[in-house]
Write a structure and sequence with these properties.
Radius of gyration: 25 Å
Number of helices: 0
Helix content: under 10%
Distance between the termini: 40 Å
């Protein structure tokens, strides 16, 4: 604190003005994606999954939120069959622990669409897999 009175030679004082804005972000990843049969001659099973960063995302200058996806890209059926599948984002195939989205400070919402695709399986069954998404704040 600066005390100024009638005896103070320099009748000025200063005050530091500060505040803090914490980083904030919300990213929504759908809990399920169900592949649907497409085509009649060359049958495949496909579906899109959209990851969304809510509007109002705020990070420090030079930072972004990076989303990676971990998977062995194999669906298994309860009957014992397996089926591999692919995931692409922006026409690039995603590998295990690959980056599927990068979001930056923005007042508008942001999206990244992943395309899941599998060839027609040899055997009937209920096929499933679990993929894990990880968010990290990284420097650009």
């Amino acid at each position: 604190d600066t005390v100024i009175n009638q005896d103070t030679d320099d009748k000025t004082g200063s005050t530091a003005v500060t505040f803090n804005v914490d980083p904030t972000y919300t990213v929504t990843i759908p809990g399920t994606v169900t592949l649907e049969k497409t085509g009649t001659d060359a049958v495949t099973y496909e579906q899109d999954l959209t990851i969304t960063a809510d509007a109002g995302m705020r990070l420090k200058s030079g930072e972004s939120v990076q989303v990676t996806m971990a998977s062995d890209f194999t669906m298994n059926s309860i009957e014992g069959s397996s089926l591999t599948y692919t995931v692409t984002a922006n026409d690039q195939e995603i590998k295990n622990n690959g980056v599927v989205a990068t979001f930056t400070t923005n007042t508008a919402s942001q999206n990244s669409t992943l395309h899941f695709a599998a060839n027609d399986p040899e055997y009937a069954g209920n096929y499933s897999d679990t993929v894990t998404f990880t968010l990290s704040v990284v420097n650009n």
